[in-house]
Design goal:
homotrimer; 266 residues; alpha/beta; UDP-N-acetylmuramoyl-L-alanine:D-glutamate ligase; 11 helices; 9 strands; 49% helix; globular
């Protein structure tokens, strides 16, 4: 049993309404902002090199998401991330598409090398794309099963000294030692764009409330997964599911969160 | 009592379906376009320095919104705005995030200095961020109450020779002399991203119908606020509220607009 | 009667879940991604010159959409398109706003000249904006009627050696010889932003399944139009229509697609 006090985390989030600074991709900006607002945080999107350092100094957490990346945006991400590190603002990375193109994979590696990341969240192939840099023989391709992903997640977490969160039918969170599985979620999450990115933002929201990255990542995925689960009980198709998901992010009470999060250690 | 002929304004808008040119932020582009379409206007988004002058010459109004701003976009905004001024196309400004970073605050001031703005719409802190430039002693921080915001709105309107619209629990519109309050609206508007930006676009839609900026700003906020109010009667959570809001923007009849707008002068 | 095996096309699409690479405009990215996911494809958005060639090599089709265009993006479109041509990946073009500004019209012409396009989809004025380049005397302005558009569509298709798809109350698809009309669709499609762009993406999804461009364009417009028609039977206002549309894109079965597509040749 995982004994996090999820109820208090959510209560605190909604009391504080922390500002979450997102440097994220064009596709998901709107949905990410709506996710953060619905669950109780305050989103801001800002990417210009002329303001990211100042903006992140106002924030409770920084989300860096490399979807629709360009070189210019990568420079802003690095600058914002470095300032966040100086200030102790947690940095949460979503390496969208890493492994698909060398530009994205290289960006992921650069961000890992240059920044102290609190949590990295991705799907298995994105997360595992970091490994080959470190000379591991096991390629991304071999880690298709859930158990392979689990071992690889621990390995990556140790390599990059961050908490790693891998989302899938069962979500996995690890700091390289402890492993927590989250059994909430719903298959329709895979048919709405930006749900992974929004889960990353949910982690950031909780990481502005607790500095414990493992707890924040677990809370974020459990909360977002529970919202998906509740939405899936109301809607059978992706359009109405997306709306029910935003509703659920708002409607879940702290007590309901504590009771319905299905977490398992090990 | 405010005796604007809101019914005729909405009828005319829906007959003309004016093209509204938006240079706005990435987060809200989709929702802004859907807002304009639903209420009866024709949105176009174009930001390239290679076409903004030509595009604005086709438009009934220009929206400039400085969320997710970069230096390059600011240059396009200035170029489009200057051309709009030459052509007599009303320019409506939304200074998103002014006051949060010096880049945004400076952008707001530059746009105010370089352009003739018809209406500026923001929340209290955004609007008040313009004041310090003019050597006022009262800082942004002191104007937290509704009455403070009201006096400051008049002051800003006089300073920048534009109509100022401040949205909040009660919306305020002023040309520096006359003050109109709008009592429509709904708290859930604060939990959907881009509703302020969409209200700005609604003002632009009406400003393409009437050149009276005070009337246009009042009509825009009353119309958008009424849509929020009607949506809030149907939905209790932000996802379904957002959809009900788009529906209401489309479904409100001219007569209903006239009857249900809750405006008050002074 | 048109005797395409639409049932098998949709079945194959949903089995393969092909990756569709989109270089598209900011306004519609989210809705396009959700459209592709709902109907059974896998969207990716990537525009950086540093990765478009590599990304398109993974894709079953490439969508180029010139809304919110800038010079930098146009260069990426050309580079991605040329690589797609080399690899035999079908390229589908949506010339959003061509005819409105010279920048967009010039971009349309440049893309037509530099790339081998499988399908070009637009509204009548966008499609017809290409003609004047070729010295035709009939201007865009004269082709307001459906029959004019039809003749012009054939002419354009012959000129640019691509299948041309024109959407409107009745959709038209032609390769310059054969003409197919699609009678599905719904008026509310015109009140949701990005539905034209999403129809283009639907064509791309089918073009990754069949290399026959005429068949792919017909299937894409019939499928998207049918989804609109079914959504219009459930919703009367644009917000709820948009959600019902995403639901329908997911819920239409291969058999229903075959039975309800209303196609007519000639």
């Amino acid at each position: 049993m995982v004994d996090y006090d999820l109820m208090s985390l959510l209560e605190e989030l909604r009391e504080k309404r922390p500002l979450i600074h997102n440097i994220t991709n064009y596709v998901v900006m709107n949905f990410t902002a709506n996710t953060l607002l619905a669950m109780g945080a305050s989103p801001v999107m800002a990417h210009s090199i002329d303001e990211v350092e100042e903006m992140v100094s106002l924030a409770g957490a920084l989300v860096i998401n490399i979807g629709t990346l360009s070189q210019q945006w990568l420079e802003s991400m690095l600058q914002a991330g470095k300032r966040a590190n100086e200030l102790g603002v947690p940095v949460i990375l979503d390496p969208v598409g890493s492994g698909a193109t060398s530009f994205r994979t290289h960006a992921f590696r650069t961000l890992v090398k240059e920044l102290k990341l609190s949590v990295v969240r991705g799907n298995p192939s994105e997360i595992l794309s970091i490994i080959s840099e470190h000379g591991k023989t096991r390629g991304v391709e071999s880690a298709h099963g859930a158990e392979d992903a689990l071992e690889a997640a621990k390995e990556v977490a140790q390599e990059i000294s961050s908490v790693v969160a891998i989302t899938g039918p069962v979500d996995i969170v690890t700091d390289g030692e402890i492993i927590i599985r989250c059994h909430n979620g719903h298959p329709l999450l895979g048919l709405v764009t930006g749900t992974g990115c929004a889960a990353t933002a949910a982690i950031a929201a909780f990481n502005s409330t607790t500095t414990e990255a493992l707890e924040a990542a677990t809370a974020g995925l459990a909360f977002f997964g529970l919202a998906g689960q509740l939405a899936g009980a109301k809607a059978n198709s992706p359009g109405s599911f997306m709306i029910a998901l935003l509703d659920a992010l708002h409607d879940i009470t702290p007590q309901e969160f504590q009771e319905k999060a299905r977490l398992e250690e090990g």
